[in-house]
């Protein structure tokens, strides 16, 4: 579904989670209940799909999150490669476990932007960046979706 459809299908006053699906980890971020601000939440080390999905669903329950925004790693020309297909498969398989409203957000260059921020603004070493990049990228992705909706006048 589109971000606009996600907003229309989830109750107002409920937060969303944002996911940055990597090969080895899942960065997780959460919005506030007003869906104005996204914050890094957690880094999940991937194991098996069912365990990973159950962990995400538990985080949704704990936060009373009503929807998910998943980063979609498009190629620079806008086409979808294997990583984007993997993200779509994760969403499809997650919805087999539970009906969860999901929208995708273009995440091109999100990790690069986050790494630059962590280096330039926070002066984090490579070792310290490793623990925060994916969850911060998830917040970057979710914040981009929230900003896009706000700019379009959608709440």
Description of the molecule:
- The chain is an alpha/beta fold and 155 residues long.
- It has a single domain, classed as Nucleotidyltransferase, domain 5 (2-Layer Sandwich).
- Helix 4 crosses helix 6.
- The model has no long low-confidence stretch (mean pLDDT 87).
Placed side by side, the strands forming the largest sheet appear as 3-2-1-4-5
Order of helices and strands: HEEEHEHEHHH
Number of domains: 1
> End-to-end span in angstroms?
16 Å
Main sheet record: 5 strands, mixed
Structural class: alpha/beta
Provide keyphrases for this structure:
155 residues, alpha/beta, Nucleotidyltransferase, domain 5, five-stranded mixed sheet, 6 helices, 21% strand, globular
Sequence-ordered SSE layout with sheet pairings:
Elements: H1 3-9, E1 16-21, E2 25-31, E3 38-45, H2 49-63, E4 67-72, H3 82-97, E5 102-106, H4 110-120, H5 126-130, H6 133-151
Parallel strand pairs: 1-4, 4-5
Antiparallel strand pairs: 1-2, 2-3
What is this entry, summarized?
With 155 residues, this protein is an alpha/beta fold.
């Amino acid at each position: 579904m589109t971000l606009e459809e996600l907003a229309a299908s989830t109750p107002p006053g409920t937060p969303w989670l944002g996911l940055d699906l990597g090969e080895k980890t899942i960065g997780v971020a959460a919005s506030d209940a007003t869906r104005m601000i996204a914050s890094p939440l957690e880094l999940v080390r991937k194991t098996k799909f069912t365990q990973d999905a159950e962990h995400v669903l538990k985080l949704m329950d704990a936060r009373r999150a009503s929807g998910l925004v998943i980063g979609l790693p498009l190629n620079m020309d806008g086409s979808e490669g294997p990583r984007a297909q993997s993200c779509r498969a994760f969403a499809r398989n997650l919805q087999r476990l539970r009906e969860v409203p999901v929208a995708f957000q273009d995440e091109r260059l999100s990790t690069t932007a986050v790494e630059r921020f962590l280096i330039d603004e926070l002066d984090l070493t490579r070792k310290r960046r490793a623990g925060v990049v994916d969850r911060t990228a998830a917040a970057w992705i979710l914040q981009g979706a929230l900003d896009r909706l706000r700019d379009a006048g959608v709440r």
